[in-house]
Every structure is written in structure tokens, then in C-alpha cells.
Amino acid sequence: MNEKRNLFEKSLNLFTLNRVDRDIYSWNGKNVGWGRVFGGQVMAQTLIAAYKTIDVDHYAHSFHSYFLRPGDMDKPIIFTVDRIRNGKSFTTRNVKALQDGEAIFSCSISFQKDEEGLEHEISIPDVPAPEELKDELEIREILLKKLNIDSKDMPMFLRQREIEMRPVEIQDYFEPKRMPPYKNTWIKPKGTIPDDQVIQQAFLLYISDMGLLAAANNSVGVNFLTKNLQNASLDHAIWFHKKLDLNDWFLYSIDSPITRNARGFSRGSIFSKSGELVASCAQEGLIRLWPESKKK
């Protein structure tokens, strides 16, 4: 339990940036990722940097970004904020994340004050409740035992996360096959997120990079264990529709309309347990399956 708690607190610590100068911030702590900095970390940190330049009661409603270069796990990250517009209703910021003077990530973020207006929203998908489902790690452990594989040989397969994930659709990672182009997962933090919309939005942005590309992978019968597969997020967008409270189960419902030209496109809807649509996102990712002869 302490390990899970420490991992969760480590994730929240990612949202604490150092001020270098006006509109310039840095992250000098330990980066999160495997081989390269996790995209969710950089996205969340750019949002935090942008919020530090906003003095009015405006909150992020849309975030559009591009992953430009792999982030180096062993180097600090500098964030530069460009104050594009300060308006009465909307405020806009552009943010770049830099390593060694080169941009590894860029985004444009729009902020808006709360307003009353016309409303409609789609309904939450009809899926089993989280209490009826197994934890993803438990499913993976059962799969390894079934195949008589020592868990010590696959540390990434059973790595702990700062969230508990309970998938609706079960897949066999060792014998992948084409699956329907959708993926539903119940998610809950392994800790308490502060009642602060800036932190709540940053946390959702952080974890929203988990699973989008996987839905596109599943649709063409590959996954992160597939040999010669090259996967990488190319861009990411998220829209915040309502005030967030992520301290209970929420459903991440993803569909992948198309995969072609070595790119997979996915869309995600985030619903509260009570059925409210609180956020939406979209992403294109690189899905490049190299021939054996071109193995790198």
C-alpha cells in the first residue's frame, strides 16, 4: 500500500515547477517514462506552466499539442509560456517544452470563465460497473500464470501505476488478434487528488495519454509486446467540459475510427461514475510495424 501511495504522491509532485524568470519555468526532478519521457508528464506540466501566467478566474477548456522529439529521461525540462491573448471571456497561451534548447513538445491552451448556456451531452456507455470487473494487473498476473511465465522476467508487464484500471474488454497480449475498434476502462486514482481544478485537470491530462494509442493498436491486432512495433504519440487534444472530481471511479471510453499510413487515430470520452461527460480527447499515434529485415 505504501508503494502505491508513494507512486501516486510522486505523480502529484510532477505538477510543482520552479520559476526561472517571467513566463519561464523548469522541472529538475526525476522524469517519468520508459526510455523516453512519458507524454502525459510533459502535457500536464505545460498546463501547470500556463496556469502560472493567468491572474483571472479562467479555466482550461481546450488543449491542443504536438510531440516533436523524444524527451530525454536524464535531462531537465524548460517550459516557456507565450501570452497570446488576455480577454474578458477567453485567455490563450502557447507553451513549449525544451531540452538542450530544442523543443520536444508544443501546445496551445484556451481558458474560459464559467458561463451559463444551452446544454446537451451524450449518455455514458452501457458497460459493467467497476465493482463487477477485475483490476488490470490481476488480469495480467492470471495470464502469466496460465502461460507459466515468471513475472520477474516481465517487469514492465506488471508495473505499478498511480491509478487502478479495470478494463471492460479483455485482451490476450501474447496472442493478439484484431478486436473491435473500441476500449472501455474504469479508472480510479490510488490516492486523493486535491480539490483544486488546476491539479484535477493536470492529473486527467497526465493519465489521458494512457490507452488512446492502445485502442488503435488493438484494432489492427498488435500491442506493446509485438516485435518490431514502433509506437509513439504524435499529437494530443483534450477538452474539459465540466468541473472535475476524479476521486471516484470514472470511465475512459475510447474508439479508433481509422488506422492507416502508419498512424492510428483514437477518440476518448471521460465520464463520471454518475454518467456525466466531463472531458473528451483525441490523439494520432505512430503505428509502424517494421519488417524483420529492418529490425533496429
Question: What does this protein look like?
Answer:
It is built from five helices and 13 strands. It has 296 residues and is of the alpha+beta class. The chain folds into two domains: 1-114, Hotdog Thioesterase (Thiol Ester Dehydrase, Chain A), CATH 3.10.129; 129-296, Thiol Ester Dehydrase, Chain A, CATH 3.10.129.10. Strands 1, 2, 3, 4, 5, 6, 7, 8, 9, 10, 11, 12 and 13 form a 13-stranded antiparallel beta sheet that branches. Helix 2 (39-51) runs antiparallel to helix 4. It starts with a helix and ends in a 7-residue tail after the last strand. The model has no long low-confidence stretch (mean pLDDT 91). Its EC number is 3.1.2.20. It catalyses: a fatty acyl-CoA + H2O = a fatty acid + CoA + H(+). Homotetramer.
